[in-house]
Amino acid sequence: MPEGDTVWRTARQLDRALSGQVLLESDIRVPAFATVDLTGSRVIETVARGKHLLSRIGDGAEHGSPAVTLHTHLKMEGSWHLYRGGSRWRRPAHQARVVLRTADWTAVGFALGVTEVIDRSEELAVMGHLGPDLLGADWDEDEAVLRLGSRPDRPLGEALLDQRNLAGIGNLYKAETLFLAGVSPFREAGNVGDLTAVVRIARRLLMANRENPIQSTTGITRRGEQHWVYLRAGRPCRRCGSPIQSAEQGQPSRERLTLWCAHCQPSTSGAPGQDSIHSPVM
């Protein structure tokens, strides 16, 4: 599933290409919204909220152009592409869920996990459950820490993936954040001495990668060397040489694979040790 930095970058690309432009064609290919026609409306902006994309279209003042928001989520397989003129699409047409065409660009949303058109006033009802956005202009570290520790008996690996605590972390940044913090994903949140340190590492990683299409937490972009533990199950830890462990974590219906080094990330209580905190790519 794309992480918050990928979604942030997608929002910026869509915003730069479409904002201020009038839609010459709109085609929403999901049954519930197939009859919605946004042709003639002006694109106001596209912003990211955690892993969600909000494309605001129409300002309510133009004739026949109500203020609506196209809310999309990439989930596991989704992506947005931008094409010039009659360029050939890079994914099959049957995977397209949204097509937005302006004079300069055609934006196509493929295999989107969520596609809906809502009234602009409904955004808070749809997004209000999300915790502080790690890449948001209104980032609130104190609130993120408070939410992360609100269930002290919950394993920290699960808590980090809960978008109600802080928005934007996926499996990659969960694994890498906890390695850099020296904390086992199975340690209970209430037994982590300094959750602020964990939150700061997570934000530093996403901030460092938001401009880069190749995600790296080691400072190296060569293939196979970008990460400390993610996608490295069974391989030697880059710090101590112990084999990287992997296991499913979470509720049965929402299990996700987690990876960690049992030596560098002890499951016993205590604050993240300074000697265990690496310096991620800046």
Fold and architecture overview:
With 282 residues, this protein is α+β, with helices and mostly antiparallel strands. It has two domains: 4-127, MutM-like, N-terminal (N-terminal domain of MutM-like DNA repair proteins), CATH 3.20.190.10; 141-276, Helicase, Ruva Protein, domain 3, CATH 1.10.8.50. The chain has helices at residues 4-18, 123-127, 141-148, 156-161, 171-181, 195-209; strands at 25-28, 43-49, 52-57, 68-73, 79-84, 96-101, 105-110, 114-119, 245-249, 256-260. A hairpin with a 2-residue loop joins β2 (43-49) and β3 (52-57). The longest helix has 15 residues, at 4-18. The protein is elongated and about 60 Å long.
Globally, the shape reads: elongated
From N to C, what is the helix and strand string? Answer: HEEEEEEEEHHHHHEE
**What is the level 1 CATH name of the largest domain?**
Mainly Alpha
Most strands sheet: 4 strands, antiparallel
- Figure out the total of helices: 6
Count the E strands. 10
CATH fold description of the largest domain: Helicase, Ruva Protein, domain 3
How far the N terminus sits from the C terminus, by CA atoms, comes to 23 Å
Beta-strand portion reads 15-25%
Rounded to an integer, what's the Rg over CA atoms? 20 Å
Strands across the major sheet, in which order? Answer: 1-6-7-5
Mean pLDDT: 92
Low-confidence stretches: 270-282
